[in-house]
Amino acid sequence: MMMEKREENREVTAVAGVSPFVADQIEGIFDIAFDSGGDKSSQGFLELLGLQDLPGFFDLPAPTAPVEATPSEPPPDSSAVLNFPATPNSSSISSSSTEAATDTDPAKTQPQEDEQDKTQKIDSKGGKNKRQKRQSEPRFAFMTKSEVDHLEDGYRWRKYGQKAVKNSPFPRSYYRCTSAMCGVKKRVERSSVDPAVVITTYEGQHTHPSTVLPRGVHPALPPPLAAEMAPPPPGGLGCVLPSLQPKELHFPYFTSYLPTPPMDFRHVSAGIITALSGDLRECKPTADILNRDHGLLQDVIRSDIRNKKE
DNA sequence: CGAGTTTGACCCGCGC
DNA sequence: GCGCGGGTCAAACTCG
């Protein structure tokens, strides 16, 4: 219910899946970011993610336990998992999805057809059988450390189910975008490894603008360009680099090309974005964007901290 | 009263 | 074929 929307004291903690050492650093940074006065609520999550673009961020010590160990997640599939080496240098920003392996699946590149297929199945079976397990729509998951399960992301969601997750004390909740004709879904669950970590998986693409227009969205970006830069991301999240190495994760790009707003990450400290879909195009940042992002960085991080990082 | 949540039942895919 | 687990439906319920 809306009970999840209460204004709790959101703890500013660590990036999910990052070692305590890193977490401590991040925490410090975010404390600054949030305590610097002004409208905290306007701090978009993806802007915060921009912090991860800090040089050497991903060179920091390894996480103790990969977040991907989430029981609900299937074992990494080489074709489905982002190219995050399972080395100590990786931030365990990895995930997988069974359908992501079907890169060549036509349905994947043509969600419309998939929808049609769904409908056909409904018609053919009639009655209650509207289920369609096949998840060929692009999926997009990320992990956040948050006290609240259901994070604000600018869209309205309706919960349509909840299931207990095997090997996890925490249930998984299923949400659907309340907007008509928008079939975007999202799953929210807590990691059994780290209960503080919320794993949110978006599926599908919003066919409508969000109800909120937070910072980080650049309306000036012409739609065609935006489309070229990044496919309309599920859940309003941005493009994903197809063959990611930790150091190549330039999260500000997400921010820059977001056609839909990022979440209200007052609730979270930071997140890890993980692509679950193979239907992704490479982001092509421009100098302008880089400059802009740097500006954002300046907004968020004290200069002396930045210098230290650099 | 409408919108959203809860929850048990149902269906499907997959592994054995 | 069977059982398990994930995903979805839909009636009942809650809340504003």
TrEMBL record:
Question: Which UniProt keyword terms apply here?
Answer: DNA-binding, Nucleus, Transcription, Transcription regulation
Q: Residue ranges under compositional bias (Basic and acidic residues)?
A: 117-126
Top-level division of the source organism's lineage: Eukaryota
Q: Where is the WRKY domain?
A: 146-211
Has the keyword Transcription been applied to this entry? yes
GO MF annotations, alphabetized:
DNA-binding transcription factor activity; sequence-specific DNA binding
Q: What is one cellular component GO term in this UniProt entry?
A: nucleus
Q: What Pfam families does the entry give?
A: WRKY
What SUPFAM superfamilies is this protein classified in? WRKY DNA-binding domain
Q: Where is this region: Disordered?
A: 57-143
Query: Entry's InterPro entries?
Result: WRKY_dom, WRKY_dom_sf, WRKY_plant
This chain belongs to which protein, by name? WRKY domain-containing protein
**Can you name the source organism?**
Cocos nucifera
